[in-house]
Amino acid sequence: MGREHHACHQRTPARLRTAAGSALLALLLLALAVAPASAEGPGSGVSGGNGVGRGFHGGAARAVRAHEQARARVDRLREADARPARIEEAERHRKALRSALWDRLRAGAREAADPVAVDPSGRRGRCPFGDRSRATELRARPWTAPTRHYWLSAGFAAKGSRWAHRHTGQDFAVDSGTPVYAVGSGVVRITTCGDGFGNQVLVRHGDGYFTQYAHLSRLDVRRGQHVTAGQRIGLSGATGNVTGPHLHFEVRITPYAGSAVPPLPWLRRKEVQVSGAPVT
Hints:
Elements: H1 13-34, H2 54-79, H3 84-111, H4 115-118, E1 151-152, E2 170-173, E3 179-181, E4 186-192, E5 199-205, E6 210-219, E7 226-227, E8 232-236, E9 247-252, E10 260-261, H5 263-269
Antiparallel strand pairs: 1-2, 2-9, 3-8, 4-5, 4-7, 5-6, 6-8, 6-9, 9-10
Helix pairs in contact: 1-3, 2-3
């Protein structure tokens, strides 16, 4: 097999643009690597807040914004029916940003003994598992709201003394024991308990995003289980650091705290309308 000799290839404008993009990406990853680590453990905020230090939050927030801008660019290129090569290049850039954020947050989660990183199946914590749920028999829409008969309480980025920085998800105020549903089809990646989020489930969907369902009183799915939109994954409760029963719903780029994106706009992109205005 012959070896590729890069010296024989000409430096075309496309190659130069790719090289420049790689250099910029390398600088961004370096900046994330040297950002300060978290001063507090994940999930330490009350009512689903994420207790991360300001320096860590700032670095992660910049990386999240960069990823979302890259994701939006991919969407625009697809809507404009751009050349496949341009779409693939933009998608590689988005995945590289996600990979860098994933690695950094995973390292921080392991150092902080976050159950998501050290006990993803919930076996060590002896989480309260119920009977394994089955896929809904009704023909549901591809995406749905995570619960029913709710009112919206604390919204994404809401300020308050209960959180070390800002609220990282959307709270759905419901009574304990209210069914909680997967918002879309996917695979259960995390079922944990014992930290500020209490009993929680994280589902990875086909678009690469994760949805988190926290403060549950019971878990009705297992790690590795495939779920469909509208399938019950547990019952709401008041476990973890809370002031009352509710569902904390979060959308993340990775399974780790610090990668959350605004959940209601994300649901709207899936054509899911959530009624009510969140408290900010």
